[in-house]
Amino acid sequence: MSVIPPEQGLKRLWHHAGPHRGRVVLAAIYTTLGKVMDVMPEILIGAAIDVVVRGQDSFISNLFGVDDRWTQIVILVILNGFIWFFESLFGYLSAITWRNLSQTLEHEIRTELYQNVQRLDLAYFEDRSSGGLLAVMNDDINQLERFLDGGAASILNVFWNIVLVGAVFAASSWLITLLAFIPIPIIVAGSIAYQKMLLPRYRGVREAVAELSSTLSANLSGIATIKAFTAERREAERVERVSDDYRTANREAIRFSAAFVPLIRMAILAGFTCTLLVGGYMALRGDLEVGLYAVLVFMTQRLLWPMTGLGETLDQYQRAMAATGRIFRLMDERPTMAEGSEVLPLPARGEIRFDRVSFGYAEGPDILQDISIHVPAGETHAIVGATGAGKSTLLRLLLRSHDPRSGTVSIDGRDLKTLDSAGFRRAIGFVSQDVFLFHGTVRENIAFGRPEATPEEVEAAARAAEAHEFILNLPQGYETVVGERGQKLSGGQRQRLSLARSILRDPAILALDEATSAVDNETEAAIQRSLAVVTQDRTALVIAHRLSTVRDAHRIWVLEAGRVSEAGTHDELVAAGGLYAALWRVQTGERISIS
Ligand code: ATP
Ligand code: MG
Fold first, then answer.
1. What residues line ligand 1, using a CB cutoff of 6 Å?
2. Ligand 2 center to 112 CA (angstroms)
3. How confident is the model at residue 394 (pLDDT cuts 50, 70, 90)?
4. Whole-model pTM?
5. I want to staple 291 with a disulfide (CB 3.0 to 4.6 A). Which of 49, 215, 331, 546 is the partner?
6. Which domain holds residue 291?
7. Are 220 and 164 part of one and the same domain?
């Protein structure tokens, strides 16, 4: 796995901020002005002491031409009020600008990331857990927020601290400047070394959180199975283990990050002691004004203490860059199947042809071998065969979820590889074996492929799919919420809904992967009735488990271990006395399913 180095992550982030750079600059200006105001009180303290000690020669007296000490103090108080007001104002403006900026950036990255992920081939998802992808699209992006909200501003703060305080120092005493600044290179070098040590640890934390989130999401979606197998205890232990791994990974990182502040404190102490000692010595000898001495002592504090925050900022930075690396790695994923550029003219005629197609998943063996199937436009063909024979795989090739290893799949005489896939998929209504319903109402699920359909159209589609009756019997009819993945419906009902959803789009081709052979007689009759209706005026390729549902098909293809072993009409196949005839005897005689 390639890892994007942190600097590059930052560069990419800056690139993404493109249209918002104006706001970044504005936020930086607010932070800077806030910082300037923030340094002022120390100078005021010095000035106040100066007024008391030097009276008519004081800094304030010279600046405003006022001799009376009390008046000078009042001037200082008024100045202080102004400074307080502006510091608050700029602090507020800086916070909202940075935070909104970070929200906007995150929103844009999240949206772009989702769009990119959605474009990837199905094969990509088959190799990965959705929980892992979720961790990147959710946790990693949130991680970015923590850095952008405060981190950028605090880096700027440290920078301006050094510049502003440095200017005050330099104007006062070169010796003290030197002494106060000695710890800075040590702190910076220490921070960088520390940052290098932390990086792999944070990467470990990110990997652990991905594991945690994929375990949680897998368990929540499989909760019914967990309960059915009374595996609660084992699964709870598993989650505990993964969570503990996460804790351990964090503990490693914490051990290092917590040691940072005490180390920095020592460097600060050294700098502070020097200022106190040397400044005090010079003030006693009269080489340094008392007020200025006070300013310098306070300023050293002001200069060095925020540097302990540098550790936390670098900490956030490291976490954010580890997250950014993962975000951009996902953003850089590209589909491996090249999109065709030709557009299938719609409405399609609906002719399907598999020409000497061989296919296997990933590096695996051939699942389909040398398959040639031709479905003329308007006909209904069936595919039957034992479980694992490759029937569903064949339909996936028709949708171009995968490309064949050799041979071609074509619609209306055009190789799918040359076609724009969004275009030709519009011509296919697909009912998969494991129907996916979205959390929403029955109506929304049926109208998924055509949200603008009228209630009458939705109802007509449901009638054709023999779903209307059972929908009316649901508590809220078409407005019944089906639950996540449609768990409030029966398997057969889900498939009816899915069929209705497909035919609402009125596709030229209907590809139907029947869920199961285990249906009662009534359902079987309903399936037959709806098949007769929905296959009219379109090409249909139906994978059937109950042979009786496809008796009337124009042609039946029998798949055996990835090859077409027989083909013909029902009567021809029964007469031929091969595998189909044997299956037919079993299903009509003993009503045992073939899969
Ligand atoms: P059923 O009647 O049970 O639905 P089927 O004929 O539809 O079976 P397929 O789903 O096409 O069978 O599977 C054919 C073979 O391909 C099986 O051996 C299966 O293990 C394998 N297979 C299916 N999907 C994948 C995948 N995504 N990755 C790797 N192998 C797969
Ligand atoms: Mg199947």
1. 126, 361, 364, 367, 385, 387-393, 433, 595
2. 34
3. very high
4. 0.77
5. 49
6. 6-331
7. yes
